[in-house]
Amino acid sequence: MKARGEKIVCLTAYDFSFARALEQAGIDVMLVGDSLGMVIQGRSTTLPVTMDETIYHCRCVAAGRERTLLMADMPFMSHISAEDALRNAGRLMKEGGAQIVKLEGGREQASVVARLAGAGIPVCAHLGLRPQSVHKLGGYRVQGREPDAAESMLRDARALQEAGADLLLLECVPAALAARVTKEVDVPVIGIGAGADCDGQILVLQDMLGLTPGRTPRFTRNFMVGAGSIQQALAAYASAVRDGSFPAHEHAF
Ligand code: KIV
User: Fold this and answer.
1) Ligand 1 atom showing the smallest separation from residue 202 Cα
2) pLDDT confidence of residue 171
């Protein structure tokens, strides 16, 4: 799809019913994200989410999946060593039905990615704002604004691709930097708050359905506005990503 210039449409999903709805809307990738800690469990961060909880939600989503690629997040602390990562990614695939795993981290995770890739496990590396590192980062902030940080992210992207990552995900990254990363790597780059030039987009389902209480992040859009049903909102999101109208300038940094 990257080679053909076709945008990749991704959304999070946590259960059977929504997996069916996403499938019907023609979403390309569904992610059982550790955002489940916040939007399903009502916690204030993603950190408490466990392997067993992720596997449970993965199984629920897998039951509603047909052609959509099923990606699962590796929870906080589940991929510190390559051996831990291998065991846990294996569980997500064998017990949860995941087809690709996502892990947060830069080039310090290259050996972990290489170990997973070597075992035949497809990997998405998550760069930019990494919610599992929220306490280290000092909050949910845009990453890569300074020239040094931008260069470092480019090095991360290259190193992770070299290590065998099949996909990159950029969260809350200035649009110009995300465009550079997307151009420099061969693997597809999925953005969230990373501008329109990424190869694909992802949002948290509850955010784009207007279900998130309080202030939503600037990069999201409530697709229920103007839609008559959830199914129409999902279809509107898919076509807005594919025709390039989402994300618009006001959703980018
Ligand atoms: O956990 C999640 O839902 C994610 C998305 C924000 C990309 O990682």
Assistant:
1) 7
2) 98
Q: Is residue 33 lining ligand 1, measured as CB closer than 6 Å?
A: yes
> For the chain, how many structural domains are there in total?
1
* Domain hosting residue 146, numbered range: 8-251
Beta-carbon contacts of 164 under 8 Å, excluding residues fewer than 6 positions away, are 113, 114, 116, 117, 118, 123
Tell me if 1 is assigned to some domain: no
**Is 214 strand, coil or helix?**
coil
Could you tell me the two tokens for 100?
A: 């690709």
| pTM exceeding the 0.85 threshold for the entire prediction | yes
Known active-site residue 66 = no
Residue 3 lies in a domain: no
CATH number reported for the structural domain that contains residue 237 in this entry:
3.20.20.60
Kindly report, residue by residue over 84-134, the tens digit of the pLDDT.
999 999 999 999 999 999 999 999 999 999 999 999 999 999 999 999 999
Within a domain: 94: yes
